[in-house]
Amino acid sequence: MTAPDIAVERLGADYFADPHSVHARLRTQRPVTPVVLPGGTGAWLITGYAEARAALADPRLSKHMPGWHPPPDSIIAALDQHMLNSDPPDHERLRKLVNKAFTARRVERLRPRITAITAGLLEDMPAHGGRRGRTEVDLLASFAFPLPITVICELLGIPVGDRDDFRTWSATIVSNAAAPEVFQAHTTAMVRYFMALLAAKRREPGDDLLSALIAARDEEDSLSENELVSMAFLLLVAGHETTVNLIASGVLALLLNPAELARLLAEPALIDGAVEELLRYVSPVNHTTFRCAAEPVEIGGVRISRYDPVLIALSGANRDPARFGDPDRLDLGRDSAGHLAFGHGIHYCLGAPLARLEAEIAISALLTRFGSISLAVPAASLRWRPSTLIHGLESLPVRLAP
Q1: pTM (two decimals)
Q2: Helix and strand totals (H; E) in the chain
């Protein structure tokens, strides 16, 4: 896979906690570098903004990975046949089925319900225990996770009571450290769950997105059965992972940058721009899922051979000083337009309007509800999930005061 004059970078466990420093170092050498990820998978990693944006829109970088997909009759294949793993024309066919549900206009109609869920979660927080007028909570478990998972479950028509199972399964699927037997068990459990849920919805359809997809599958034959299960899986996982980590990591970024936190408290109207800057700064999706060179491609002066796997570091592109001045500084007044937190091109995140709205409501309501928020542990002790795909915290202990 490697050009003879380019050394391969082996990424260690420190990459989970601080991908930004690794990307900065690699980018100063060259914007396209061969790497071996924690766990042993090799790929080309693109860390430069211009190169990343071009690669995201390059049809020669295909989602068809020869030899990488599970056998069609395996149970895991039922999670593999979604639009994020598809090239045209299948990609357009699959995306078209759900596109209308996530337009900015449709998503805006969810504002009252998202606001109500947010208010309920914040109201419940003091019940988690406190002393001397202060409450200590894991903000991720009590707020950042339940808000987006509740919203996406209601939208899809999935019982919210099963959300703890989803959190466990999702964490395993995006992890680089899960044991093979655990990965197999959790993916199998998720497939069986969705098969049972979809069968129940066939018997009793509801006013929800999964029931609509079933109708498309049964009446128009627009989806195969595996595509239907894969779509449910993708919408659930992608529908909460980005926002969970945007809220949690975004709040952490504000706590570690008190001047910017004070700025937002003084000017609440900054929230829309603040969300864009937090998306750029924390980049909840660290890099894209794999692409494969369908033919030889030159990117950033490096020749990538046919069938070589490629990863595009969205967080690396978002901290490229050639695109964003002083990129490691959080600046809520910055024009962050053009950031790649949601990708670019045909695979641009379908749920971007929903993620933006949830983060705007969540962060604004949190700062309004509590007069004081501070970390309950030293920042250096915070643990990051063992995933190269998702950059997110394991927990976020904070102290809150009215």
Answers
A1: 0.94
A2: 16, 12
